[in-house]
Design a protein that fits this description.
single chain; 371 residues; alpha/beta; Enolase-like, domain 1; TIM Barrel; 2 domains; 7-stranded parallel sheet; 3-stranded antiparallel sheet; 13 helices; 39% helix; globular; binds magnesium ion
């Protein structure tokens, strides 16, 4: 079997409500589907996002041009099964284009799975779990009351792990945490995420105030580049620290490990370059004794399925990550025939061949922005 074409489908999808974090609010998501065609008629799909922060300046159109003009000529004619070698070729040609590589890499796994009639997790390490518990992401709201409404609705849908966005107003952050603990007691696990917005001093002051409220982990409290600061925070507060934005390649994770700058790592399909590279990060992290938090930028069921497949195959422990944030209510639309939807706070791992999800042509036609 040979690769014949990389088809790009740029999409703009509505958020159900403005998606607000410390770095600003969004009303739409720009996401890219890649369909990799083969000479035997099997077509694989993968997804990446033009997230435009967290160390990425990708735009939808730069992703499209990278994939069409640079990746396609390099891999047309090659076997879609040669995933590691193809990714080496792409990375050597355009170093660190992880966001663009992610959609292509995952589409290759989708092809391989469809070719042998097996879900992708069978190509990694086989089935270790068929359902994955996920966390609810609490985006910023204008008032504590509105935040509690959002938390209550997650709770009623069976979510017991909350990822609360913090990092603009420390008083409101504290008030939100206090209100969540008062409402839910010890029935929920609370995690906070500043998306790198705080200074070291502000982060330390806030985390000290949050210590009595049993915060399971504080995600990326300070800037991407400040590994020294993260390492100092790890020693200065009893709240464990998670690196998200600070981890892109395996080299960056190794640096976090060497400096003991975090004890938890978050991966994302787009940020980290697809399933193959995420699996490598999980291997490194677990060898270093870190906890693993499976994440994603808000995304459709395609990138959600990719993480679910990895979780299914992972033999070790996993945290209840927010990789399903897009399909848990953040997005107002999906683009597959059978959308992944959490039930009782859990995702059922798709069991069909490949990623186990198929594009819905009507939804694609509605949301694509290139025709
Ligand atoms: Mg994060």
């Amino acid at each position: 079997m040979k690769i014949t074409e990389l088809e790009t489908i740029p999409l703009r999808l509505p958020f159900a409500q403005p998606f607000k974090i410390s770095q600003g609010a969004r009303e739409t998501l720009e996401t890219l589907i890649v369909r990799v065609h083969t000479d035997e008629g099997i077509i694989g799909i993968g997804e990446t996002q033009a997230w435009r922060r967290q160390g990425s300046a990708e735009l939808l159109w730069s992703l499209v041009r990278t994939i069409k003009d640079h990746f396609e000529p390099l891999i047309a004619g090659r076997s879609p099964f040669d995933i590691g070698g193809i990714l080496n070729t792409l990375n050597e040609a355009l170093y660190n284009t992880l966001y663009a590589q992610a959609a292509v890499a995952d589409a290759l796994y989708d092809i391989a799975g469809k070719a042998v009639g097996l879900p992708v997790h069978k190509l990694f390490a086989g089935e270790c779990r068929d359902r994955v518990r996920v966390g609810g992401l609490l985006a910023m709201k204008p008032t504590v009351g509105e935040l509690m409404e959002s938390a209550q609705s997650f709770y009623e849908r069976g979510f017991r792990h909350f990822g609360l966005k913090i990092g603009i107003d420390p008083k409101q952050d504290l008030a939100n945490v206090v209100a969540l603990r008062e409402r839910f007691g010890d029935r929920v696990v609370l995690r906070v995420d500043a998306n790198g917005a705080l200074t070291y001093d502000a982060a330390l002051a806030l985390l000290k105030k949050l210590e009595p409220y049993e915060i399971d982990v504080a995600e990326q409290p300070i800037a991407i580049w400040d590994l020294e600061g993260l390492a100092s925070l790890c020693r200065a507060t009893s709240i464990p620290i998670m690196a998200d934005e600070s981890v892109s390649t395996d080299h960056s994770l190794l640096e976090v490990i060497r400096r003991r700058a975090a004890t938890v790592v978050q991966t994302k399909i787009a940020k980290n370059g697809g399933m193959y590279r995420v699996w490598r990060l999980w291997t490194l992290a677990s060898a270093a004794g870190m906890r693993i938090y499976p994440g994603n930028h808000p995304s459709t069921s395609v990138a959600t399925a990719a993480v679910a497949q990895l979780c299914a195959a992972w033999p070790g422990a996993l945290m209840e990550g927010v990789f399903a944030v897009g399909v848990s209510g953040a997005l107002g639309a999906d683009i597959v025939t059978e959308p992944i939807v959490p039930v009782n706070g859990e995702i059922r791992v798709p069991s069909g061949p490949g990623l186990g999800v198929e594009l819905d042509p009507d939804a694609i036609a509605r949301y694509r922005i290139d025709r």
